[in-house]
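batch job 7 of whatever, protein = LytR C-terminal domain-containing protein
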Amino acid sequence: MGGQYKITGDKYPRMRPARRRGRVVVAAVASVTVLGVLGWGTLQLIDVFTGGDKASAAGAAGCATTARASASPAAAVLPKPGRVTVNVLNATTRSGLAQKTADELKKRGFRVGDVSNAPKEYDKKVAGAGVLLGPAASAKTSLTVLGTQLPGAEHRTDAARKGAAVDLIIGNGFKGLAKPADADAALARLTAPRPTPAEEKKSC
């Protein structure tokens, strides 16, 4: 046989170039595999960090919403009974009822003004337990506090009325003021502190 290699005896020459090509193929496959694994791991790390940023942004947005809510106006502060002057007027035919009611209100800490019969526009014309009457500014202050003493009374305001005193006009359905314990509990519920939106922000 002609060519570079000659066969002598029972030994054959080694094909070294073919073995080197096999090693190159194996090395190329290994390199591609390693690069693929590294690329996949990099993508996973990017997703982890990106997801954390999104969660932080969502939490910050929730806290910001709560902070804006804290700008709402505060509720009106109710006066204590000692700062409320009450005129007790009797619109019934039962004598002495106005004075008896005025004495009880005084024991409960209220200031007592006039004690007399109701004017003609209310005299014998109040069918319910009574009417609480005051200036417009007393609607959510003095009348609210006095209302704890006579829950069934009707609340009315007069825009033209001057001064801060309020009237308790006793009606035909009047059976007495609320029990002291019940009145105190009702007043405590009105004056109890309530959580504001700013305090709720602490849960973020």
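notes: Residues 58 and 183 are 47 Å apart (CA to CA).
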